[in-house]
């Protein structure tokens, strides 16, 4: 499960960056002098494996080299700042780098703002945000359970696919909300509020796994707001107790008791997808395969055009990142894509 992103709020908004900088200054306390005096000594803290930090800082190498490597991949290394914040050396390096974080990343901006629907601040990322005005077209991209709004950007294959796209993409952070309004938070309303804040005239929705479910449900509930939908390993017929365990997912508490499950299932409203451009994919060994096949059959029964693909693999991130390029190209075709 992906952890929290306490440093990502510093990336795109100078006011947020200043707030985060104050947090770092407060954390320095009496250790500031020791931190600055040993800034370029070899670090001894344990680093997570295979990260921008460890690629620049093998055992015995200086922190200076690590910072140089990490400089070129800010989004991916932010988590490492958080995990090492108790080390004075990292505190000092964070202090020095935070002003740069506020302006880093021309393509991906990570933002945090107050949302009325949630009653608190929440993070989201925007790819290819216009320098001025509102975008004409944008893709709302929802992540899977146990992942977050930066998962695809941190993955080298995922990032390569995203960087090829000219589209504005919005990646909200949904935690384990299943992207619905519940006692855990009003996340469906959060998505609509976020869309209003971004202000694009035309939208496509996409997502994988939990995000495939959430994006499909959002389009069926608000069809007037979307021109297209793309799903990767989507839990398309969920919650549904009729599938055997090997073809199903455990039903989270947000959906309540079993008699209520049908009202949460987007399959009951797929007729509202008529006129949308639809593209979805599953994998041969993925537990969600039967759900996506059911969705395709139902769309055929309703004579709703769609493109459905079956590839090798399981319900795994590898399938998701490898399918990003064809899905994005489909969503960007014709009248739906960026002008």
Characteristics:
339 residues; globular; alpha/beta; eight-stranded mixed β-sheet; 13 helices; 2 domains; 16% strand; Rossmann fold; two-stranded antiparallel ribbon
Largest sheet: 8 strands, mixed
Order of helices and strands: HHHHHHEEEHHEEEHEHEHEHEH
The strand count comes to: 10
What number is the mean pLDDT?
A: 78
Radius of gyration: 21 Å
Give the class from helix and strand content and strand pairing: alpha/beta
Through-space gap between termini = 37 Å
Beta strand %? 15-25%
Number of helices: 13
Please describe the topology of this protein.
Layout: H1 14-28, H2 32-37, H3 52-56, H4 63-71, H5 74-83, H6 88-101, E1 108-115, E2 120-127, E3 137-142, H7 151-154, H8 156-164, E4 168-172, E5 181-182, E6 185-186, H9 187-198, E7 202-208, H10 210-221, E8 228-232, H11 261-264, E9 277-283, H12 289-301, E10 307-311, H13 317-331
Parallel strand pairs: 3-4, 3-7, 7-8, 8-9, 9-10
Antiparallel strand pairs: 1-2, 2-4, 5-6
Helix pairs in contact: 1-6, 8-13
Q: Can you tell me about this structure?
A:
The protein is α/β, with parallel strands linked by helices. The chain folds into two domains: 8-101, no CATH class; 108-336, Alpha/Beta hydrolase fold, catalytic domain (Rossmann fold, 3-Layer(aba) Sandwich), CATH 3.40.50.1820. The protein is built from 13 helices and ten strands. The chain has helices spanning 14-28, 32-37, 52-56, 63-71, 74-83, 88-101, 151-154, 156-164, 187-198, 210-221, 261-264, 289-301, 317-331, and strands at residues 108-115, 120-127, 137-142, 168-172, 181-182, 185-186, 202-208, 228-232, 277-283, 307-311. Strands 1-2-4-3-7-8-9-10 form an eight-stranded mixed sheet, with helices on both faces. A two-stranded antiparallel sheet has the order 5-6. A hairpin with a 2-residue loop joins strand 5 and strand 6 (185-186). The longest helix has 15 residues, at 14-28. The radius of gyration is 21 Å and the shape is globular. The model is unreliable at 1-105 (pLDDT under 50).
């Amino acid at each position: 499960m992906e952890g929290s992103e306490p440093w990502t709020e510093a990336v795109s908004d100078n006011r947020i960056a200043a707030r985060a900088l104050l947090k770092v200054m407060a954390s320095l306390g009496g250790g500031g002098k020791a931190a600055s005096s040993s800034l370029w000594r070899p670090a001894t803290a344990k680093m997570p494996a295979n990260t921008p930090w460890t690629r620049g800082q093998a055992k015995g190498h200086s922190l200076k080299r690590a910072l140089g490597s990490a400089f070129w991949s800010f989004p991916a290394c932010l988590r490492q700042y958080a995990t090492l914040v108790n080390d004075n050396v990292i505190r000092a390096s964070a202090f020095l780098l935070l002003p740069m974080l506020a302006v880093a990343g021309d393509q991906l901006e990570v933002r945090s703002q107050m949302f009325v629907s949630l009653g608190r601040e929440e993070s989201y990322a925007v790819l290819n945000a216009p320098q001025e005005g509102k975008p004409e077209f944008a893709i709302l991209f929802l992540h899977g359970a146990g992942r977050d709004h930066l998962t695809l950007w941190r993955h080298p294959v995922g990032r390569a696919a995203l960087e090829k796209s000219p589209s504005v993409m919005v990646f909200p952070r949904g935690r384990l909300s299943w992207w619905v309004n519940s006692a855990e938070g009003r996340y469906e309303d959060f998505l609509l509020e976020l869309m209003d804040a971004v202000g694009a005239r035309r939208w496509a929705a996409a997502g994988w796994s939990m995000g495939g479910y959430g994006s499909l449900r959002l389009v069926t509930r608000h069809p007037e707001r979307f021109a297209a939908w793309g799903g990767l390993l989507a839990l398309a017929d969920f919650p549904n107790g009729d599938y055997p365990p090997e073809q199903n997912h455990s039903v989270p508490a947000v959906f309540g008791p079993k008699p209520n499950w049908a009202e949460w299932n987007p399959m009951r409203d797929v007729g509202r997808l008529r006129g949308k451009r639809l593209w979805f994919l599953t994998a041969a060994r993925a537990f969600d395969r039967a759900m996506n096949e059911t969705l395709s059959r139902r769309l055929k029964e309703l004579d709703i055009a769609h493109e459905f693909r079956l590839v090798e693999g399981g319900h795994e991130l590898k399938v998701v990142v490898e399918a990003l390029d064809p899905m994005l190209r489909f969503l960007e075709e014709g009248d739906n894509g960026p002008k």
